[in-house]
Amino acid sequence: MVIEINKDIDRYKESVLMGLTAKQLIFSVASVAAGGGIVLLLYRYIGLTPSVYVAIPVAAPIALGGFYSFNGMGFYEYMERKMRMLFSNHPLVYVSTEGEETIREIRMEEEARKKADKKKQKSRGKKKSCKKRKKERNRK
């Protein structure tokens, strides 16, 4: 006698009726009941098609609660986290741990380095021009 066992036991789900798990069965019955109830109540007043359009936004989230899962989270847990991320997250603000004086000193050091680099470049340019003059004199 051979009994097949799923390799991933954590994801094993036992079917209750028609291949549906208990959670899926409960949510599908609830969504059909809610959608059907809305259609039956509104059919007399607005007609069949508009009543179905009103029922779908009510029945769909109920059905998704039983069938949808993302990264191990159910639909309601996932939407709760998504709404929390959208509306209740506060922006991160950088606050410098250094004082204003330290920042000024760093900027002044950078400016001094830039000025020193410019002076070196100018002095190199003068030395080159002096060498060129000497070469020209020697050629004559």
SSE layout:
Blueprint: H1 22-46, H2 48-67, E1 69-70, E2 73-74, H3 75-87, H4 100-139
Antiparallel strand pairs: 1-2
Helix pairs in contact: 1-2
Architecture overview:
With about 140 residues, the chain is mostly helical. It has two domains: about 15-85, no CATH class; about 105-135. The protein is about 70% helix and about 5% strand. It has four helices and two strands, in the order ααββαα. It has helices at about 20-45, 50-65, 75-85, 100-140, and strands at about 70, 75. Strands 1-2 form a two-stranded antiparallel sheet. The mean pLDDT is about 80.
Number of strands: 2
The end-to-end span amounts to: 111 Å
Q: What number of structural domains do the residues give?
A: 2
* Main pleated-sheet profile: 2 strands, antiparallel
pLDDT < 50 stretches:
none
Order of helices and strands: HHEEHH
Strand-residue proportion? under 5%
Q: If strands are numbered along the chain, what order do they take across the biggest sheet?
A: 1-2
Radius of gyration: 38 Å
Class inferred from helices and paired strands: mainly alpha
> Share of helix among residues?
over 70%
Query: Globular, elongated, flat, extended or rod-shaped: what is the shape?
Result: elongated
Q: Tell me, rounded to a whole number, the average pLDDT.
A: 81
Tally of helical runs: 4
